[in-house]
């Protein structure tokens, strides 16, 4: 499957999901992620802020803020796009987010910039194959960002609806795959 085909098919399938199925899979994906042993060990979490029909990450972020109040030492940083580049900024509450690039919630200007060199990062994507290749939205923001920090101890995860896992998609040399893909059914990779 080409990247272009994957993008078109997955956008259509995500739009056609029923609210009940979307809610069920989002809950099961959160449960899979929260049960992952790496999740309990990390002190930094770098999620994307979900937009439109993506797997919901906002509830996960809200849950982390609740865990912080109960004493968990974990920091949350989310991306902000500037031109062709992207950087991560620490947030302390959902009120630290405001509409940014393409209407996606991004950290406010006052949020401090951080370098994602340790912890867990969630990579967004439209399709993933069983070998871990990822088709994003075509901007290359995550691939460029991660190339700047090669050799870090980041755990790269992706979250996806079950149908977003396909047998094979074309990959390019600069594409950085996640170490693990979590769906409602199980972990891939």
Walk me through the structure.
It catalyses: (6S)-5-formyl-5,6,7,8-tetrahydrofolate + ATP = (6R)-5,10-methenyltetrahydrofolate + ADP + phosphate. Pfam families: 5-FTHF_cyc-lig (PF01812). This protein has helices at 3-16, 19-35, 37-41, 58-69, 141-148, and strands spanning 44-46, 75-82, 85-91, 97-99, 105-107, 113-114, 118-123, 127-129, 134-135, 153-159, 165-166, 180-182, 187-188. The chain is α/β, with parallel strands linked by helices and 189 residues long. The protein has one domain (3-124, 136-174, 182-188): 3-Layer(aba) Sandwich (Rossmann fold). An 8-stranded mixed sheet has the order 6-3-2-1-7-10-12-13, sandwiched between helices. Strands 9-8-11 form a 3-stranded mixed sheet, with helices on one face. The longest helix is centred in the first third of the chain and has 17 residues, at 19-35. The mean pLDDT is 90.
Keywords, separated by commas or semicolons:
5 helices; three-stranded mixed sheet; 189 residues; Rossmann fold; eight-stranded mixed sheet; single chain; globular; alpha/beta; 13 strands
């Amino acid at each position: 499957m080409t990247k272009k085909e994957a993008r078109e098919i997955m956008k259509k399938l995500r739009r056609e999901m029923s609210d009940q199925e979307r809610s069920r899979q989002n809950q099961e994906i959160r449960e899979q992620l929260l049960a992952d042993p790496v999740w309990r060990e990390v002190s930094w979490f770098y999620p994307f802020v979900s937009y439109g029909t993506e797997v919901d990450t906002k509830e996960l972020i809200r849950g982390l803020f609740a865990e912080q109040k109960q004493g968990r030492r974990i920091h949350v940083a989310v991306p902000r796009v500037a031109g062709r580049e992207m950087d991560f900024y620490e947030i302390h509450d959902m009120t630290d987010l405001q509409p940014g690039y393409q209407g996606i919630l991004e950290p406010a200007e006052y949020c401090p910039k951080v370098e994602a060199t340790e912890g867990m990062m969630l990579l967004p994507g439209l399709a993933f194959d069983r070998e871990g290749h990822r088709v994003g939205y075509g901007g290359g923001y995550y691939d460029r960002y991660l190339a700047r920090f090669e050799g870090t101890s980041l755990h790269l995860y992706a979250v996806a609806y079950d149908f977003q896992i396909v047998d094979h998609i074309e990959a390019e040399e600069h594409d950085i795959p996640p170490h693990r893909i979590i769906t409602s059914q199980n972990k891939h990779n």
